[in-house]
Every structure is written in structure tokens, then in C-alpha cells.
Amino acid sequence: MIKASGLSKTFDGGVEAVRDLGISVEPGEIVGFLGPNGAGKTTTMRMLTTLLRPTSGTATVAGHDLRADAKEVRRHIGYVAQGGGILPTAPLKGELELQGMLYGLSRRESAARAGEILARLDLAGLETRLGGALSGGQRRRFDIAFALLHDPALLFLDEPTTGLDPQSRANLWGHIRALRQEKGMTVFLTTHYLDEADALCDRLLIIDHGRIVAEGAPAELKTGGRTLDDVFLDITGRSLREESALPGKGV
Amino acid sequence: MLRDTWVLFRHGVGVTLRQKIGIVFGAVQPLLFLVLFGPIFTTFGTWETLVPGLIIQLGLMSMGLAGFGVVFEKRSGVLERMRVTPASRVALLLGRVLTNAVTLILQTVLLLAVAFAFGLRAPALGLVAGFVLVVVLGLSLAALSYAVALTMNEQLFAPVMSTAVIPLILLSGSFLPMSMAPGWLDALSHVSPFRYVLEALRDLFHGHYLTGTVGAGVAVTAVFAVIGLTVGTRVFNREHA
Predict the structure, then answer these.
(1) C-alpha A156: how far from its chain's center?
(2) What is the ipTM of this complex?
(3) Which residues form the ABC transmembrane type-2 domain (chain B) (predicted)?
(4) B239–A90: do the CB atoms touch at under 8 Å?
(5) Which distant-in-sequence residues (6+ apart) come within 8 Å of A158 by Cβ?
(6) What is the pLDDT of residues A109-132, one digit of tens each?
(7) What domains does chain A contain, in order, with CATH numbers?
(8) Which residues are paired to A64 by β-bridges?
(9) Which of A5, A132, A247, B205 could disulfide-link to A88, CB 3.0 to 4.6 Å?
(10) How much is the pTM?
């Protein structure tokens, strides 16, 4: 579903955010992308979702070349950004319909699809509210609803549960698992929460200083009775628990 | 691209029409000039000279600050949510500027209606031709405003644009024709493209169609449209926009 090779991004001013990255994600996998603040997680995700042009390297996302066929990539992926994408002053119903139509659906198809997804995400009836009238957990689930309107094969989630209470996080995990189980959807997510990565992901990629430094199933990484936090500390020299207490920098 | 533009335009017009008070509020300043300054101006000038100036003032204030909307959309992540869809980047700009054009048309109609009640008597052809010029100018200005809003630090957008709009209004000769200004100010005003458009509007409102002034206004508007839409599209295409 994702095949990237030699992917790099150097920003103006010479900051190398991502270096020579190789990623392979199979259809139906839930892959967690972990790393300290500034490691290159968001930059990688923004490149894979066509929002940033890689400086070098190649990638195929959902069967389409990232550089040559960006529009087709967009047609087949859903993306939930770290900060979400909900206007506090707009009624959600109209925004959902618009988003679906920008994916090529008719108004009727878009409304029907929105109804179906809102029911699936326990949000039915809330679409008449303004974005600003939602709780944090509801807002996050609406962000996911926006990303699912066109039934994508691959869903990118950038820090989907940051700032949510434990109950809302667990609720969201349930929805993500159900998407994979019922639709066979591939999910690529970044997270600061090791319990989330452990419980939700089939495979983890750990990135530090713009490079993948470890990769494997959670059980494979936790050898010798170590926790994921021990693994993370050994590899990066930093504890992800400390990192999660810091505000995200989104590099 | 056309379908995406239409989808965004229809959505934008729906949102605009739900906020009717916003349309009226945007036209309040030129309306106040019309009502409180017009009767003084017409003791030595004509409504056909004053009203085009107020339309340019309206266009500059309303369209020059159109970028505010996209600042909120960028801050809330809505713009990025749209940029990750297959919708054309040009459509993301055009859908918005065409919505702004509808706002400008409604505000201009309101201004003209009040102006007619006060005594404006412009010929229909002049009004229609003037309308076209103003709408094209407004579209281009809105596109530039979006470009500035997406490029500039969002905290600076409001003070910079508000500050830029005032001298542009004054230099265009909105309130008094620049022919009444001292030589240095008259010369300086020639750097403002809005002066040419305003003078063309005044000719059109007086029923003079095939004049050099109208020609210059049309040419300046066309060049401004090409620049505005090109810059706007480029900025919407940029990865950091």
C-alpha cells in the first residue's frame, strides 16, 4: 500500500527533516510511526499525503506514484492532520457534503455517505451542530469522518488521540480497529502514546533524526522483557513518556 | 476544475447569503460617505463623479480584505483538509474569489440603489460596463489578498492590508478627482492602478464609452486580473500555502 525508497526532505535553510527513508506498508496493516518531537514524523506523513514535495526519493502510495500522479494518490487516501480541520463557526453537515463533493461524489451521494459514516462513528445527529460545539473526542471523530467520505483504501492519522481523555482514546481505537476489520483499510498513524502503539498497531517504525532506526511488530521489539518505552529509550536516548509531555512541534 | 470551482462557489454563496448582515455591514462605510458626504460633494460636483469613487472604495475594502477568510481556514486546518482532496488547486482559489465577487455585486447594487434615490442618473450601458470592470477588478484583488494572507504571517495580515488599502483609496481619487490635487500628488497617484479604473468608471457613468480613459481603465483592469489570478494560483499551488 505504501512503498517509499530514499525519501528525503530538506527545507529552505538546509534543515534535513527526513533522510533516505524507506517504508513498506502492506494492505490491511495498521502501522505506527513513532519518534521524538522533531524526528520527521509529520514531514514524512505530509510527503506521503502529497502536501509536501520530497526533495529526493521515490514513493508509491495506494498504487500511484507520489510525484507523477499526486491527484490519484489523493483520490485513494484519507488524511487526518495533527490539528484537525474543523471550522468552529460552520455547520458540520454542509462541510461534510462539500468535502465529499470535492472527492467527486454528488451532493446526494455525499450526504448518504456522511450519514453512514457518522452512524459508524457514533456521531449521528451531531452534524447539525457548529464545529465549535463539539467535545475533543467528537471533533476528532468528525476529523476521521471527513477523511472517510470517499471510502479510501489507506488512512493517514497524525497523532489522532493527542489531547483526548483515556475513554475517548479507547473509543477511537475501537473505531480504527473496526475500520480495518470491516473494510480491510490500511492505517498509517503517528502517536506519542506507547500503549496506543502497542495495543493498536501490527507493526511499528521508529524514526529519529529523520531516519528509520527500528522496525518490527511490538512483540518483536519488546525482547528480553523490555517495555516499548525501554526500547524507545535505548534507540533514541529519550523517553517517549517525556516527549509526550512536551507540546508537539510537528516537524 | 470547472466542477470543483462550481462546488466551492455554490457552497461559498450559500454561506455568504446566510450572513446577510455581513454583506450590508461591508458596504456601510461607502454608504455613509454617500449619505453624509454626497450632498456636500454635489454642491460643486455630480453624483456620477462621486459614486464611481465610492464603488472603488467598496471594492478595495471588501475585496482587499477577502484574505481574512482564508486565514481562519488555514488556522483551523480546513484549507489543508481541502488540499488533500483531488480538487484542483486553481478551483480552490476560483471558487473563493467568485464567491467574493457575488458579495461585491450585492454590495454594489445596494450602493447604486441608494445613490439613485439621492440623484445618480447614469446610463444603463455605462452602469453595466462599469459593473463588469469593478467585478473583474474585485476578483483580481481578492486573489491577491488570498496570496498575501497565505504568504504573510497571519498576525500581520490585518494591519498590513488595512494600512495598504487607505492610501490606495486616497490615491485613486475616490473622494475628489486627482485633477484637483497638487502636481506631486497627482503624479504619485498614477502609480495606483485603481486611479485608471476609477477614471474609466467616471467616463462610463457620464455616458462616454469610447474614450482613451475607458481604454486605459480596461487595459489596467485586464493586466491586474492576469497578475492577481496568476499570483493567487501560484500561492495556492505552493506546498506551504
Answers:
(1) 3
(2) 0.85
(3) 13-239
(4) no
(5) A41, A42, A45, A79, A80, A81, A82, A189, A190
(6) 999 999 998 988 888 899 999 988
(7) 2-85+154-245 (3.40.50.300)
(8) A61
(9) A132
(10) 0.84
